[in-house]
Structure formats: C-alpha cells, structure tokens
Amino acid sequence: MEHPSTDPSASADIRLLGRLLGEVIREQAGPETLDLVEAVRRAATGERRGTSAAGQLVPLLGDVADAWILPLVRAFSYFSLLANVAEDVAANRAARLSRRKEGEAAGPGTLRHAFAHLDDGSRSRAEVAAVAASVTVTPVLTAHPTEVRRRTALDRTRAIARLLEERDRGGMDDIDAVEWEEALRVEILALWQTAILRPSRLRVRDEINQALHYFDASLFAEIPKLQADYERAVAEVTAGEVAAVEPVVRMGSWIGGDRDGNPFVTAEVLAYATERQASAAFAHHLAALRRLAIELSMSGHLVRATPAVEALADSSGDTSPFRSNEPYRRAMNGCYARLAASALAALGTIPEAEPRARLEPYGSPAELVADLRSVEASLALHGAGALARARVAPVRRSVEVFGFHLTSMDLRQNSDVHEVVIAELLARAGETQAYLDLDEPARVALLTAELTRARPLVSPFVTYSEQATGELAILAEAAGAVRRLGQPAVATYVISKAESVSDVLEVAVLCKEVGLCVPASDGAGLRLGPSIVPLFETIDDLANAGATIEALLGLPLWRDAVLAAGGCQEVMVGYSDSNKDGGYLASNWALHRAEMDLVAVTRAAGVRLRIFHGRGGAVGRGGGPAYDAIVAQPPGSVQGSLRITEQGEVIAAQYSDPPHARRGLEALVSAALDATAADPDALGADRARFHQVASDLAARSMIEYRSLVYETPGFVEWFRTATPVREIAELNIGSRPASRKPSERVEDLRAIPWVFSWSQSRLMVPGWYGAGTALSEFLAGGPERLEELQAMQARWGFWRSVLSNMAMVLAKTDLAIAARYSALVPDPSLREAVWSRLRAEHQRSVTALLSIYGGDDLLFDSPDLAQGLRNRIPYLDPLNHLQVELLRRWRAGDRSRVVEKGIQLTLNGLATGLRNSG
Ligand code: PGA
C-alpha cells in the first residue's frame, strides 16, 4: 500500500536541493558526470518504484571507469545528505505548526501531555508535587565513534537548513526568492568543494571541543527555557505549593573521562576536558551578567531597590559616577567581579573581560544564585516582575543548571584494569597473599577492611607499572578537578564489564587513594565522592545484576555510605554488548528483567535506584525513539531520575539546533514524568504470563543467534569478508581503537564496528536475528499463541516498542543488496551455509511480525519513517552497489587510491544516509 506523502513540502525541498546539486555537479564536474549521475539516479529510482526494469543498476555501476567513481559516490552521498536536511526542516516545521494549532491536544512527549496525565484527578496534590519534584534527566554525551560527518560538513548542512527555515518564516518577494535560491546554490557549491573525509584521526581533544559546540548551538538556550516551562507547569498543578524545583535536565559527559579501551584518555586529557568545560560555563555566565549590567538600568530616582540589592551595589566596587544611582547595574557589576574572581581561582584565567574591581570569589554557584534571586525579588517589588522573569531568571537558571563546571564528567574504566591495579598496589604495600588468587568473599573482606583504614596503599617510595601510574594519575586529576570546581565536576565513576561486588569496592579503594572517597574511621562511615556505578553488559551479568546489587547493599559499610550520600544507588545497563552477546530479543528481555530485579532489591534495601541506560543510535545498540523506550521501562525503574547516553550521530541530530534540542529534551523529561506516574500494575493478571512468554522467546532467540554467531564454523571469516568491518577500522571517525584486543573474535570486537558493518551491508542482523526462529516456533504451538502475541503487542508498552524497533530495522534491510555482499565470501560452501541461514531467518522474522501486526506493512505505525525511506533509499542503493564493487577490487589486490578512497567515501555516505548506523 502506498502511503500518502506525510509532508509534501519535504519532497518539494528534496527535489529543489537535488536540482541545485545537479546544477553544481554539471558546472563543477562537467555535463558527462551529471549525465552519468542522472542515469544512475533514474535506474535506482525506477527499480525501487518498480517503474523500470530491474537489473540495470548493477551493470551500470559494475562497469564504471575509475575516473567516475569518486564523483558518483560524492554525488549520491550529497543527495542523501540533502534529503536528510529537507526532512529535518520539515519535522521542525510540522512540530511548530502543531504547537500553534489552537485547541489541538498535545501529544505524548510534551510537558502539556505529561502534566495533564499526572494531574488527571487520581492523585492528591501532594502526590503530584512529589512526582513533579523528583524528575531529573541527564543526557550524557559520549564520543562513541559513530559520527562519520566532519564538523565542517555539519556546519555546511546547518547553513542549508537555516536557509530553508528562513524561507519558511515567510515574507519573501520575487527578488528575495532569486537571491535566496542563489544563496542555497552557493552553500551546495561550498559543500561540493569540501572534503567529506577527515585526513587524520580525531584526537580526544577534538572530541571534547566538538561536544562543547552543542552548548552554544542549543543547550545554553534551551535547557533554562525548558526549566522555566517545567516550573510554570508545576506551579499550575500544585497551585504554587512547590517552591523551588531542582533542574530537570543536567548534561553529563564521558568525553575525556571514558578510558575503557581508549589509551588516549590520560590525566592531561581529563584536565583539559574539565578546564575547557568550566571555561565555557564561566564565559557564558560572565557574558550574561555583563548584559544584565547594561539592561538593568532602573534608576534609584524612579524605583526603590530592596536593601539586599543596595547592599550588593554598595559592595560591588563599581564607583562610576554615571551609575551612582543605578543600583542594579552596580550590583550586576559586583556579581561579575566576584564570578570573574571565581574563574581566576579555578582556572588561573578569566575567560571574558577583566572586571572593574577585584572582589572575593564566590564559594559556590549557589552564592551567585542567591544574589540573582535577591535581584529578581527586588525587581518584582517595584512592578518589574516581568523584567525579572524575562532577563534575570534565565541567567539564574543557567547558573543552577551548569554551575561552574558546565557538565559532570564521568570516569569509566574496565573492571579488569581495576583488578590488576589493586593487585599491584596491595602486593607493593606488602600484602602477602596475591589478590588475583583470592575468591570473591576473600576479596570483598579485604577491600572492605581497606575502606575502613585511613592508611594509604600507595607509597611515594615505590615505582609502579605504567598502567597503575596512569590510573592513579587520572584519579588524582579528578580529585583536583573536584577541589577546584566542586563534586559535580566529577560525579560518577562507571565500571565496564562489572560482574561482582569486588568490582565496585576496587574502585572505591582506588578513589580513596587520591582522596576522592574518605574511608570509614573514628565512628564516621565511608564517604563516597563520585557515585560508583557498575555497568552490567553481558546476558549473564545482567541476569546476575539484581543479586550483585543485593549483595553490595547487604554490606552495611556500603549501604550506609549510599544512604549518607543521598540514598541513591545508580546502576548502568549496556544495550550493545548484551545484544552482541545474545541477540536482539534476548538482550532486550535481559535488560528488562535485570531492571525488575534491581527495583526489587533496592526497594528491599531502602535505597533509591537510578538506572543509567547505555544506548546508541542504532536499534542493535538500544536505539529507537527515546520517549517510547523510557515509558516502556518496568514499573518502578524510573523513580523520577534517569541517565542516558547520547552518542555519535545522535548528538548532531538532537542538539544541532534549538527546536530539535527542545523537542528531544522535552520528550525525555516528559517520559520520565510519565514513567514515574505510570500505573505499576497496568498489566494486571496478564503480567506473569506475558513475562513467561517473553522469557521463552528470548531463550529460543538466543539459542538461534548464538548458534549462528558463536557456533557456526567459519562464521568470523564470513563476517570479515561479507562486510566492510576491516575497512571501518580505518575510518578516522573517533579517537579510540576499534577493538579492545588484537583478536579476530566477535567477543573482542567492540559493538560499534559490529553493528556498523551489518548496517553497511543492509542486513542489520543485530536488530532482528533470532526473533524469527523464536516467534515461529512459539506460533507453531497452537492457534491461541498468535492471539497471545497480539495481546502482548496491544497491552504491553515494552513489547510493543521491542517489536516496533525490530520492524523499523527489518524495513531497512535489503536482502538483494545483502546477497551481493555475501557473494564477496570466497569459499562457496561457507558463503552458502551462512547466507541460507540469514535469508531463512529474515523470512521467518518478517512473516511472524506481519502475522502479529495482521497486515502487510512493517511500518504501518511510522508513516514518517516510511516516507523518509522512500525518499532516501534510491540514493543509498548506488552507494551500496559501488561499495561492493570497490570491496571486490580491493580484495582482488587493486590497491589504487581511487578504490581505497571510494570505499571510505561509500562507508561515510551510507552511514550518513541511513542515519543510525553504528
Ligand atoms: P562500549 O560501548 O564499547 O564503549 O562499552 C558499547 C556501545 O555503545 O556500542
């Protein structure tokens, strides 16, 4: 069934941008190039739409001469990139229009909808207030290498988007329209002459600076605005009963602190990251105060400021006779001087203009917030409340949200590393029994004892291994950042591949060595500095997560420390590695199950739970619509707060412009509200049965998945020859290496290149493999089984979201293209053995899903995506066919530059066009 176009103007813009790109290609690369591009485009579109005979595209591209390859790849990369831009602009436009439509009910993912639901009459005002006050959402920016686009390309596409938006605002006459089209053409020309690929690998410093860009692009403006809207909504539903609302969004970052498998993250890099971030925060606040010192020009002859503001003015050191009767301006200059002094103390420099006076630094952001509140209160008293709300409150909220540190930096390292470092420290401190030989109870006993001793393990008289020295140096640097900028500067330490209590205690002991944690002694308990967060990421570790946390909280030392630090135990769950381990259904169920267990054990221990979701953009790494994912969490697992990683290409998609950022952040906050307020017993009597079915399907799916990936002889060779996994490692898209260890095993390959490779070959195995077997075996058990699966689909948000994401992936897979990749495998029997299983499983998955959906359309509930795919797929097909051709030539020994560069360009173009690929 053809869907009607959901947004005709997106299609019109795609045609317009395509025409302009065509004109640029003709002018820059010659008419023959454009003719070839057009011939390929016609063949690709015709084959997709069924309007021309199949089978023309492959010979057209297979015979292509070297000279045409790079222009062709670049042309199709840009066609799909421009189609994305047009779609994004259309999405913003649609959101704007729907907001403007009078009376239209606000949809899920908006504050209006979430507050209407919260205040639906079923809760007392106190309950409403408690839920509303509990919300904090932390999107954590990470440098996971899945963003293929250079900053330059992002800037150019942003400029094109801005032009389209300008046109949308209206008011263009004919002459403007001509100039406007010319401006678009110029941007596309600049894009055409800009290199798509980075000439060298990114450094962590570059990644740090790239992330900072998003604060100026959207976050500085949008987070305080969203906070204001949230506070207004809370005031309405609680009739003003909740006086102060904590920031509902705080950003976090891993960039410069995540050293799991990234040897380039060192103490110096961590110092650079925390300083650059703090400098951005200080510069932002200082500039805002300077603006206020101009704008708040109320005269003491006309209005009367409060004594608090007069006192601020008097202590400001601002002696200018021109401002002698302008208390607010003098007060603001005083705040500026104090904040500048804080910057100087923390950073050794002032990232804005010198202050007019040297004053004492602020001891904390809260002191500046208090001054700004006095100013707001004073303005309100003489009838300038509107000015306080419009000008001063946003600055105050910005200080509340970003503090002096901008965003909390998480540290992350692998549990294996902590273990060997602890073993070394203990051995060098004279411990006679080797730590690595101890069993878990003995380790826990030893580490617990260590956490009650003031004595350090590290001695200045000992030389440690390079690894231990590096780890201790990072921790010491983190302790320094906390001293300079406060605990929020380094608030979390994440332990990858955590599986036991000792994994957590090891980190506490390491933190103690540098003063980040304070040991229990003299009757005082252990004082945790950063929150220490185990990351469970294999199917087994997720299955044991509840028991591990139960045992951890069973240690009085630990539970007391958690309670003293605010009573919240954070736990991180990893979507990608569990998927690589057990396949799509098993991973999703293991995550859900683990969260239910964690809810139960933390509740029993009287501790609040916060879950940190380590998810990427691709469905095989936990991607998919964030709102749906959050509201689909098990009851009790979102108790107001949650953290979630924002990675790679998702960051640019989400935070490049204010409207997207606003929508994304509002959706996260609304989802946290909806999930917290959800009925814990929504599934009622069906719950146990649904869980039983999900668990059964997960187990069947995992057997099939593991049998293919880990038990099929030669599977690794198939994967390495039928996908571009080797070539992906050469893309200069991130600072960290592609594998943790130099090995060919799937276990040692990082999840990103694993998922990335499957996306490029359009098979997307991590998004569905195993589900077909599980569902078809289950359905074969009797006719009532289909009804059961349909009931789950209708009534259980978690299950609906799992299936809907899988449907989205299956709609993007393309067996005809994937078959061409499979043909690259040299050994015919291996080729056929793996391919026939993939094909059959794909068929089973589609058939089962369609029978649950009761139709013939996988994307029946996502018309926008369906339309987007129809727009983009014809541009992606030629890139796939060219990639296959180039891989064939490369593997046959053609080492020419065209082939090498062509492969890299197709990888880039496909990742850009597919959007969530890594
Ligand atoms: P990691 O991330 O390899 O850094 O743990 C996994 C992923 O997000 O794919």
Number of beta strands? 8
Strand ordering within the main sheet: 1-2-3-4-5-6-7-8
Oligomeric organization of the protein chains: single chain
Distance between the termini: 30 Å
Number of helices: 37
Helix content: 55-70%
**Uncertain residue segments:** 1-6
Shape: globular
Radius of gyration (Å)? 29 Å
Major sheet size, sense and barrel closure: 8 strands, parallel, barrel
What is the count of structural domains? 4
> What structural category characterises the helix and strand content?
mainly alpha
Q: Could you report the average pLDDT, rounded to the nearest whole number?
A: 93
Description:
By secondary structure, the protein is mainly alpha-helical. It has four domains: 1-104 and 151-194 and 867-918, no CATH class; 267-402, de novo design (two linked rop proteins), CATH 1.20.1440; 409-536, no CATH class; 537-647 and 683-861, no CATH class. Helix content is 62%, strand content 5%. It is built from 37 helices and eight strands. It has an eight-stranded parallel beta barrel with strand order 1-2-3-4-5-6-7-8, surrounded by six helices. Strand 7 (608-614), helix 24 and strand 8 form a beta-alpha-beta unit. Helix 4 packs parallel to helix 37 and helix 23 packs across helix 27. It is globular. The model is unreliable at 1-6 (pLDDT under 50). Bound molecules: 2-phosphoglycolic acid.
Quick structural gist:
The protein is mostly helical and 918 residues long. The protein is built from 37 helices and eight strands. It has four domains: 1-104 and 151-194 and 867-918, no CATH class; 267-402, Phosphoenolpyruvate/pyruvate domain (de novo design (two linked rop proteins), Up-down Bundle); 409-536, no CATH class; 537-647 and 683-861, no CATH class.
